[in-house]
Amino acid sequence: MDMESSCNTDPRLGLTRVFIWCVPRSLSTVLTKCLSYVDGIQIFDEPCISAFKYGPEGKKPIVNQLNQIESIRASALNQEVMFEHVFDDSKCTYGWIRQQLEADYPGKKVLLVRDHAIFLDTKYNTIPPGFRHAFLIRHPYKVFPSYKRALTKHLNMDNDTTNWNELLKTIDRSNCSYEMQFKLLRYVQEHFDANPVTLDADDLQSNPSSILSQFCQAVGIPYSDSLLEWPPGHDIMKTWKGSKLQMQGGLLENENGYFENAMKSRRFFPVTATPKRSELSQDLQEAADYSMPFYEKMYQMRLNP
Description:
- The structure is a single chain.
- This protein is 41% helix and 12% strand.
- It is an alpha/beta fold and 305 residues long.
- The protein is globular.
- The strands form two sheets. Strands 1, 2, 3, 5, 6 and 7 form a six-stranded mixed sheet that branches.
- The longest helix has 18 residues, at 282-299.
- The two termini are 33 Å apart.
- It is built from 13 helices and eight strands.
């Protein structure tokens, strides 16, 4: 099958277009915050999540009585607009998102989209050509404990006694983030770009200058060492484009700590040791075991420090 053009720069506008696909708790918010300081960049944050959860095609209700996270986000509807580029969730279909991704962005040099393959929901036909695709991964032994701690904290549940699979049911999620990420990577290889960029969060933490510079060069984003440090706080998020529930709700979530470390960050955090499988609870061992084959295949494709 012939691939669509893999060129990610609009020849008329000089606009570089980049997707970063991630799994939860993979430092994607920190990376997005870092790249927000690239000259002339427009961040479009997690539009597929908005379509999947809140838009007209959404599979889940806006508020689940068991889901404190979504209740926090829903309260954002009554807040004064704090962001320059928010849009109403009622228009957020996958087709509408594609139109936004294909739109002109006068005065901008880079359009960077951060999202999750699992929320694309295999609607691959809604991915426009002309983007460079990057896949951010992190070891499952780190992701699942971090994800569980974050969710149980928000839901006021005990982390030690809560079963991971029951927790996923509570928040209407599945355990296939890595699987969907890998399937999307294969689709991108077959239809858009035979060599998408893959980067591992541990490599980014342990050698940020090497990995970030390689990443920027690979996707066509200008790099400078100034990107390795940035101001703490969430003010830069106000320049991002996203749905009102996703953006303002996300900021309110930060008050409860979900993105606290990312928002406080000034640089990439030092890398920590990967837990042993035996150090994970049984439920998280099972989740990691299912995800590991997909992670390992993507890991073999990663940028090397």
